Amino acid sequence: QVQLVESGGGSVQAEGSLRLSCAASGIGFSISAMGWYRQAPGKQRELVATITSGRATNYADSVKGRFTISRGNGKNTVDLQMNSLKPEDTSVYYCYGQNPGYGSDYWGKGTLVTVSS
Questions:
Q1: What's the CA gap between 98 and 49, in Å, rounded?
Q2: For 108, which of 4, 30, 63, 89 could close a Cys bridge (C-beta 3.0–4.6 Å)?
């Protein structure tokens, strides 16, 4: 069974930093793309950042210049360095992994990030 496990969430004051990590287990091949999504209270889930197996990155406009996504050499881990955090960054953050075949994409259970003013 493929699982994505997130870590690093917590509470931080505005302008602080957190680093989220995600590792995939139970998979014998490299995931083509991974990323992070978030869902704030009362809002729809939105893309935060993605990274391909070739390490091309894409960021939401709201986090450009503040967040950095990266992945390990094995391609099945992904981190999100979050700097200059704002209260509006408060969300449950979900790790994402693209299924290269016909099955469903992979999702972590989520980790809560709370930014206080």
A1: 13
A2: 4
Distance set, CA 117 to CA 10, 62, 101 (Å): 15, 18, 43
What tokens appear for 114 in the block? 């709370």
Contact by Cβ (8 Å): 68, 87: no
Kindly provide the b/e burial profile for residues 34-45, where b requires at least 16 CB atoms within 10 angstroms of the residue's own CB: bbbbbeeeeeee
CA 81 from chain centre, in angstroms, equals 9
**Structure token pair of residue 97:** 């992994």
- Element at 37 (helix H, strand E): strand 33-39
d(CA 22, CA 16): 20
